[in-house]
Sequence to fold (328 residues):
Amino acid sequence: MPDFSTPNKECIRRYYNKPIIKRLKETYNCNIIYYGLPSPDAEDIAEWIDYISSVVAFQCRDYGNVSDPDQPTDKVDKLIEKLNAWEASGKIEDYIVYDGYMEEVLFKGFDNSASGSIDYTHDNHITLFNLDFCNSITSPQEYITKDGDRVSKFKLELIDKILEYQSKVSNQSDKFVLFLTVQASYAGADLHDYTEVNKQSMSKYNSHDRRKHLVLKHFIEDYLYSIIKSNNYIPQFMPTVFYKGINDVDMMHFAVMCVRPQEDKKHGGVFVYNQKLVDITDSLPILPDPDNNALKKFADDIDGMSHPDLNFMQTFVQSRNVSSYWND
Fold:
């Protein structure tokens, strides 16, 4: 098995992510553009390749260290070789690999190979943002600017930047899906402040042995819900997945389907957000079940929270957001 994969991760790719991508491709008859962080082996793209048209990938040279032109390019070269083979065989239409961390490339506007500015323009497409981070949501990424300054950017800032890019192409694509994977750890002051402000709504987690993970889930879902709404998109959250990653590290995986509706979809002059934040945060996580090639329910019941339907795509299709905004 490749270094960046585990049975749990493969189960999530195949039985959680893939049905989402397949549904989008088949229902809306559009190109799916992968925009994200594959490993040099690109296991995620390989799993979803039947539904992906183009790839925009970011690959650092030496994970954990600030980019340096003297670092070997073997990881970047390996990813390019794999994508080039897929393009040559007709499995994907085109691709581009940016040499560097996503944070540094997007905020600098160019990568470490000077391959040009960031741009992607395709008609009638849905962008699949796959932000598969190996560390926590608050882990900063340092990079050196063209002026030689050392700068740090955080994952939450990166999500803001990505939504800014998506907004620029909203006339060509009014839909996107966000996959976000992070470690289930957070030591930031803003989480502490958030917990204090929302102490009452999160008191239901207090007696559970995974209290910290449930609090973090709540915080990230709230953040994503707010930032997506502020960019004039309607989010539809799928169940959040808890799982054990490499070296048994606790991980979380989020999936959000987003659409920017037309003005004529307003009711009384406003868009109606049919999936409320409390519906999302009060939904228990689900778990991968690789032994049975499936997903399964969270082991425990928690007062005030409900188990989501494991037939999550059917829930999505039947949601009021889909009938109101996705079905033209």
User: Anything to note?
Assistant: The radius of gyration is 20 Å. The longest strand covers residues 250-259. The chain has ten helices and twelve strands. The CA atoms of residues 228 and 235 lie 7 Å apart.
